[in-house]
Amino acid sequence: MILVGGLFFVLLGELSVLLDVYLGSLTQLLVVPLWLFLTPFLLGGFVAMIHGALEGSTSVGTFVRGGKDNYVSMLGATVVFVGILIGLSIVGTVVLIIAGAAGFAVGGGIVVVALVSVVLLVGFAVVFMFVQFYDAAIVVSDDRAIDSFSRSVGLVSQNLASVIGFSVVFLALTLLGQGPGMALYLSSVEFTQTGETVVTSTSTLWLSIAVTLIVGTIVTAYAYTYFVAFYTSLLEGRRND
Fold first, then answer.
1. Measured distance CA(31)–CA(20) in Å, rounded
2. DSSP run (H or E) holding 169
3. Distance of alpha carbon 133 from alpha carbon 152, whole angstroms
4. pLDDT tens digits, residue range 19-62?
5. At 191, which helix (H) or strand (E)?
6. Measuring CA to CA, how many Å separate 98 from each of 85, 95, 102, 107, 115?
7. Which of 45, 101, 133, 200: disulfide with 66, CB 3.0–4.6 Å?
8. What is the model's pTM?
9. Contacts by 175-183, CB closer than 8 A, 24 or more apart
């Protein structure tokens, strides 16, 4: 059953790929709102389904109820999360421009930009690591949108070493699930100077879709099961303290 939830997520991603390839980049105007309003339902249902399985039983009905019951909080949290990402991107871009200008002024522009880029990347990763459990907090702990971020930050702060290890493993699983399909996709298209995507091998493109649907679904189901199980272990550890 958990594989069904994983498939929904992967299908949404592959749909956006096909729309971009065959209908052009303007379809992102459709895909972004679709992602924003559909992801909270899918994510809430998926986490609820996994939590139900870990507790003893789950079903497609669990997925639907989880998506509906947690939709408002998940939507609010998604907006906050996207806002955090946009804010970090703006700050990072400004810092990079200033650092680059200063670096070129003293003759070490490329080195300065590279160092600042690494620092910014690490900073983004740290922020993401602290807020990553907001969705589990909403579904499993019944938190509201803002409270879910507070709980996530608190749990990570109390279990920093184990969360770092978890985050590395979760990232590796994500790359494993998306890597093969992404490699095939990149070998099947070319990107023009105007930003358009041109298909150079239709068969390879559809092979990338098939590989991602199969491998991505399996790995996504496993990775998110690990995610929810780890979150519940953090909660149990807090109760035992």
1. 9
2. helix 160-188
3. 5
4. 777 776 667 677 778 888 999 999 999 999 999 999 888 888 89
5. strand 189-191
6. 20, 5, 6, 14, 13
7. 45
8. 0.87
9. 176/215, 176/219, 177/215, 177/216, 177/218, 177/219, 177/220, 177/223, 178/212, 178/216, 180/211, 180/212, 180/215, 181/208, 181/209, 181/211, 181/212, 181/215, 181/216, 182/208, 182/212, 183/208
When pLDDT is cut at 50, 70 and 90, the band that residue 160 belongs to is: very high
Buried b (16+ CB within 10 A) or exposed e, 26-56: ebeeebeebbeeebbbbbbbbbbbbbbbeee
Check whether 241 has a pLDDT greater than 60: no
Contacts of 53 (CB under 8 A, 6+ apart): 1, 2, 225
82 neighbors 36 (Cβ within 8 angstroms): yes
Residue 56: DSSP 8-state: T
The token duo for 201 is 């091998």
Q: Give the helix/strand (H/E) hosting 107.
A: none
The count of structural domains within the chain is: 1
The domain containing residue 74 runs over which residues?
A: 2-240
Q: Nearest-CA neighbor of 149 among 124, 129, 128, 131?
A: 131
Q: How many CB atoms lie within 10 A of CB 72?
A: 14
What percent of the chain shows pLDDT beyond 70?
Answer: 93
The CA-atom distances, in angstroms, between 182 and each of 9, 18, 83, 206, 218 are 16, 13, 27, 12, 16
Quote the radius of gyration of the chain (alpha carbons, Å). Answer: 20
